[in-house]
């Protein structure tokens, strides 16, 4: 009975000694450790106007088509949706979009110089209309002309390169006769576009797009992520993440048109709403 308290005391002293040593080591190591602050991103070069015009012009010539799967995330008046999309684009005016599910395509949209068609396989509905800007928006949610949509999906700012332009810092400002302005910004280590903004006549941004996650392709650097926003009317965002895009691959013309299936019901494009 006399030995037990002594053993407890020895064990307690032993634990206290260990904790004391550990505490001293922690203080010494803490005093010696150095915290390395994160490296600040390298600022882009100040590009000359000639470099930027040459780059955007060359890219417009080099990027002619794309075929890819993409993850698309939409947020707008119809809620939030994420889906897989097969994207096929042939500039200047050919487009095919297939919205995919585990059971196959649930919507196939084709557009060309003549018309836009939307086929809804599950419902057996076939929609046909003129390739107007409004009809393009009905199916893509992007309020641009078909030629501008194909440029955008190829990572090219939808600007009129022949329009008068000026430079402000690392941005080119295009001023066509419409009274609107397109601003293309080049904030990267290579002279590639990182942002496009369209200003209306009142000087407000109505549309914009960001281009990022550039990857190397035989045609040059290609943005695998495109973030589009409509900021005044029908406010929405659309983010596209390309997966292993094929650039300038041969795309047969019949991919951009559809024949009405025998059992499908054809309805006017106005029936799908605005």
Structure explained in plain terms:
- The chain has 274 residues and is an alpha+beta fold.
- The protein folds into two domains: 1-34; 49-272, Lipoprotein localisation LolA/LolB/LppX (outer membrane lipoprotein receptor (LolB), chain A, Clam).
- Helices cover 22% and strands 40% of the residues.
- The chain has four helices and 14 strands.
- It has helices at 3-32, 49-62, 133-140, 146-153, and strands at 65-76, 79-90, 94-101, 104-111, 115-120, 125-130, 165-168, 171-174, 181-185, 195-199, 205-217, 220-230, 236-247, 265-268.
- A 14-stranded mixed beta sheet has the order 7-8-9-10-11-12-13-1-2-3-4-5-6-14, covered by helices on one side.
- It is globular and about 60 Å long.
- The termini are far apart.
- The model is unreliable at 1-33 (pLDDT under 50).
Overview features:
274 residues; alpha+beta; outer membrane lipoprotein receptor (LolB), chain A; 2 domains; 14-stranded mixed sheet; 14 strands
Secondary structure elements and their pairing?
Elements (H helix, E strand, L loop, with lengths): L2 H30 L16 H14 L2 E12 L2 E12 L3 E8 L2 E8 L3 E6 L4 E6 L2 H8 L5 H8 L11 E4 L2 E4 L6 E5 L9 E5 L5 E13 L2 E11 L5 E12 L17 E4 L6
Parallel strand pairs: 6-14
Antiparallel strand pairs: 1-2, 1-13, 2-3, 3-4, 4-5, 5-6, 7-8, 8-9, 9-10, 10-11, 11-12, 12-13
């Amino acid at each position: 009975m006399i030995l037990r308290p002594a053993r407890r005391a020895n064990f307690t002293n032993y634990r206290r000694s260990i904790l004391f040593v550990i505490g001293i080591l922690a203080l010494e190591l803490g005093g010696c450790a150095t915290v390395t602050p994160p490296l600040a991103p390298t600022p882009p070069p100040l590009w000359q106007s000639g470099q930027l015009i040459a780059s955007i012009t060359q890219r417009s010539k080099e990027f002619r088509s794309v075929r890819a799967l993409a993850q698309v995330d939409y947020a707008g008046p119809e809620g939030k949706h994420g889906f897989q999309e097969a994207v096929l684009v042939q500039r200047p005016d050919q487009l095919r979009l297939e919205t995919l599910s585990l059971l196959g395509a649930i919507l196939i949209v084709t557009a060309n110089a003549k018309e836009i068609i939307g086929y809804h396989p599950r419902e057996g509905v076939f929609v046909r209309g003129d390739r107007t800007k409004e009809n393009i928006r009905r199916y893509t949610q992007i309020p641009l002309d078909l030629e501008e949509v194909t440029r955008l999906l190829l990572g090219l700012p939808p600007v009129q390169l022949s329009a008068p332009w000026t430079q402000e810092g690392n941005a080119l400002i295009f001023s066509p006769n419409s009274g609107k302005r397109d601003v293309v910004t080049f904030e990267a280590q290579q002279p590639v576009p990182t942002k496009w903004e369209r200003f209306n006549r009142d000087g407000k941004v109505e549309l914009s797009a960001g281009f990022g996650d550039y990857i190397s392709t035989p045609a040059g650097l290609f943005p695998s992520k495109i973030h589009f926003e409509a900021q005044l009317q029908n406010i929405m965002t659309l983010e596209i993440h390309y997966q292993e895009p094929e650039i300038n691959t041969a795309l047969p013309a019949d991919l951009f048109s559809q024949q009405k299936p025998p059992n499908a019901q054809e309805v006017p494009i106005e029936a799908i709403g605005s």
